[in-house]
Amino acid sequence: MFRSAFYACFALTALYAIFLGVLTIPFFQNQIIYLNRMTLTWFQDVNVPEQWGFLHNQVTPFHLPTEDGETLHAWHILPLQLYRHHEDELLEEPSGLVPDIKNRLSFRLLRDDPSSLLVLYFHGAAGTLGSGWRPPSYRAISAGAPDRIHTVAIDYRGFGASTGVPSEEGLLKDAVALGKWAMEEAGIPPSRIVLFAQSLGTAVSISLANHMASSPDPILFSGMVLVAPFANVELLTATYRVAGIIPILDPIAKIPRLLTWLNTFILSKWPSKDTLAEFVRRCEGMAGDTLKYHITIIHAEDDYDIPWSHSEQVFWHAVNASSPNGVGYDELERDKEASKVMRGAGGWAVDHRTAKGVIREEIMKHGLHDRIMSYPVVSLAIMTAFGDLDC
Question: Residue 325 has what DSSP assignment?
Fold first, then answer.
């Protein structure tokens, strides 16, 4: 029995060592980080959004080109009340993937209404824009203003029906393509655009916001709503579990030097906490009072995919960057305890405000990793990011 147990342990250790070796190969590493081959919409046509409960032609599938020649699959989701007002006209239009979205009524309703608002949606790893809790989250996003809030979601390169292979640089280009489409093709000013993102998408949206803010003529969107963000991939590897069950590097996380060495092989690092800090620092240094930022971070305590401690780190780095003298982590925790808005079984929220912007953290007691996207907390966060719809 002892010999059998020894051989079993040896075999398991050898298999795990082989698994770690495989993770150093870029192709397999990409599959672990992005899981883009797991569509989670098998046998469903993403050009027929009615399969996910949308009304006929409430969603317009279209293609979005990137500057480096990739083609992204996208959905434009009309808010329900606006759809109701134009239902007869929308029903007369052809359904399915459109060759040119600018010829569709839905696009004109977005472009030609000076009060229209737009949410650019960046989803998490795995799946397509029709997977899991994403369709319900589109409905939650527009709930605060069902006649004004449009949503455009994309599948990144290598996901779903989009071309290409995912990478950190590539996904930023995808996000830039969407941002430019919104401002240049749809004609929506950044003051009427909010970035919504979950999980992997939070890293993408943070990179997009920082990229736009660093341009010669800085661009700041109305706000960012980040659901279940992670601090960076290196910290994520020590805590992340595939499907909330299978640990990646948890068994060796107790050996810091070994974990640090293995992290040197990671290609897509997504340093969200540092990039967000850079964004905040950049915004705080901008002259004038017209450009302001708004960041809302939302996480559930029962999230077993990405622990909510990641949001604590992201929030601290952002707040620290907003102060010329910095803020220590323990000092911030004491300040938070004194200023938290307690919501009982609903969790708590805290705001950090400066003359240039707002950084908000909302921790829910319930919501898991994905389900929280469909909750009213998201609807309220979107409304707040739009300045309570005064824009």
Answer: T
CATH number (3.40.50.1820, 3.30.450.20, 3.40.190.10, 3.40.50.620) of 35-232+270-385 reads: 3.40.50.1820
Instruction: Report how far residue 292's alpha carbon sits from residue 286's, in angstroms, rounded to the nearest whole number.
Output: 9
Whether the predicted model's global pTM rises above the 0.90 cut: yes
Residue at token pair 């027929």? 48
Contact 57, 106 (CB under 8 A): yes
CB neighbours (10 Å) of residue 46? Answer: 21
Please say whether the beta carbons of 224 and 295 come within 8 A. yes
**Which among 346, 345, 342 has a CA at the least distance from the CA of 376?**
346
Assigned token pair, 89: 């006209």
Whole-angstrom distance, CA of residue 178 vs CA of residue 58: 20
- Report the distance separating Cα 252 and Cα 255, nearest Å: 5
Q: For the chain, what are the domain ranges?
A: 35-232+270-385
**Inter-residue contact 272 to 206 (CB < 8 Å):** yes
- φ, ψ dihedrals at 255, nearest 5°: -115, 85
Would you call 62 helix, strand, or coil by DSSP?
A: strand
Average pLDDT across each block of 10 residues of the chain; the chain has 391 residues. List them in order: 66 66 69 88 95 98 98 98 98 96 98 98 96 97 97 98 96 98 98 98 98 96 98 81 63 70 78 98 90 96 94 98 94 95 96 96 97 97 87 56
